[in-house]
C-alpha cells in the first residue's frame, strides 16, 4: 500500500461527493504527494478511475471489500 500524506473519509457519501472531496483535498497537496480516500459508494472504483484519467493525477491503488473502498491518488 502507498503511504498517504493526507487521508479523507468519504464513506456514506454518494457520487459525486467522494470525487468532489478528493478534488478539494488534492488541491491542498504538493505535487507528488499521495491522497487516500475511503468510500462506500458502489460506483467509486469506476468514478476514481475516470477522475484520474481526466485530471492527470495518478491512481496508485484501489481496493474494495465488503462495500468499503480505498483509493490512493498521487497529485500531478
Automatic annotation (TrEMBL):
Q: Which InterPro entries match?
A: TusA-like, TusA-like_sf
User: Pfam families this protein is in?
Assistant: TusA
Extract the PROSITE patterns matched here: UPF0033
Which Gene3D superfamilies does the record cross-reference, listed alphabetically?
TusA-like domain
Matching entries from CDD domains are given as: SirA_YedF_YeeD
Similarity field: Belongs to the sulfur carrier protein TusA family.
Q: What is this protein called?
A: UPF0033 domain-containing protein
Amino acid at each position: 500500500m502507498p503511504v498517504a500524506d493526507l487521508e479523507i473519509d468519504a464513506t456514506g457519501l454518494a457520487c459525486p461527493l467522494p470525487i468532489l472531496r478528493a478534488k478539494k483535498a488534492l488541491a491542498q497537496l504538493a505535487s507528488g504527494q499521495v491522497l487516500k480516500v475511503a468510500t462506500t459508494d458502489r460506483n467509486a472504483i469506476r468514478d476514481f478511475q475516470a477522475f484520474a484519467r481526466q485530471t492527470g493525477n495518478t491512481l496508485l491503488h484501489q481496493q474494495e471489500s465488503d462495500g468499503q473502498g480505498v483509493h490512493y491518488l498521487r497529485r500531478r
